[in-house]
Amino acid sequence: MVWVANLASLELHTSLSRAAKLEQPSALVFDLDPGPPADVVLCCQVALWLRDVLAGHGLETFPKTSGSKGMQLYVPLNTPVDYGTTKTAALGLAQRLEREHPDSVVHMMEKARRGGKVFIDWSQNDQHKTTINVYSLRARPRPTVSTPLTWDEVESCWRSKKATQLVFEAEQVLERLDRVGELFEPVLSLEQRLPKALLEGVEAPDIDPSQRKASWARRREIEKSLSHRSGRG
Fold first, then answer.
1. Counting beta carbons within 10 angstroms of the beta carbon of residue 71, is it exposed (0 to 12), middle (13 to 18) or buried (19 or more)?
2. Element containing residue 186 per DSSP (H, E)
C-alpha cells in the first residue's frame, strides 16, 4: 500500500483472484453500469432483482457503489471454481434479467442499446480483468469512494429515487466504518458454491454484426498504425 501511495495512485483496480491461485476467482461479480439518463437509482432496482434471484439459489450477495455512477454486486465463493464457470453463470443471469425486464436491463456492451437501461457487465468475471476495489477513491474532481452498502440502503435509494444517497466521500466512509462495521468482510471469508442450475440454458452472447465489423476495422487501423511507427523506428 505504501508503494501504491508513493505512486500517487488514487484508484485501485484489483483482480478477483488471490496471488496463490490466479486461475481461481474468489467471487462472482456483476458490474452495473447505467446508460444515461439512467443512474444509480435504476442500478438499485436491478441489484435487488439480482439479489432475489441469487437468494433463490441459496447465495448471499453484497452490494457496493462504484464510487462513480454505478454499482457492483459480489457473490463470495472462496471455493474451487474457474473463470469459465463464473463468467457463464454471470452471463446467464444477465440474459435472464434482460428477458424479464427488457425496458430496464441489457446484457450487451454496445452504447446504442444502453440508453436509459442498466448494462449488467458479466464479462468482468475474467482472469485478465479487474474491478474497482472496495474503499478505493475515484480519480474525479470530487474523489468519491467505492463504498460497501447494506441492502436497506439499496432499497431506500430505490424508493426515494435520490441518487445522492449513495455518494460518499472519504471522511464519510471512515465514519460509516466506525458506525456499521466492515460490511464487505464476508466477501473474503464466506464460502459458497455456484449451483449447476445457474449454468443451464445460457446462450452465446448476441453480437451486432455492425459492431463486429466496426471492431475488426478498428483492429486493422491499430495494427496499421503500429506497423507505421515500427517502420519509422
1. buried
2. helix 185-189
Give the other-Cβ count within 10 Å of 11's Cβ.
16
From residue 32, how far is each of 66, 68, 85, 154 by CA, in Å? 9, 11, 20, 13
The pLDDT tens digits of the residues spanning 155-183 come to 999 999 999 999 999 999 999 999 999 99
Model confidence pTM above 0.90: no
Largest CA distance in the chain: 60
Domains and CATH numbers, the chain: 13-228 (3.90.920.10)
- Core vs surface per residue 87-105: b (16+ CB within 10 A) or e: bbbbbbbbbbbbeeeeebb
Q: Are 133 and 14 in contact (CB under 8 A)?
A: yes
Per-residue pLDDT tens over the stretch 10-39: 788 999 999 999 999 999 999 999 999 999
Which three cell numbers, joined as nine digits, stand for 153?
Answer: 440502503
- At residue 7, the 3 state secondary structure works out as coil
Of 172, 173, 153, 175, nearest to 163 (Cα)? 153
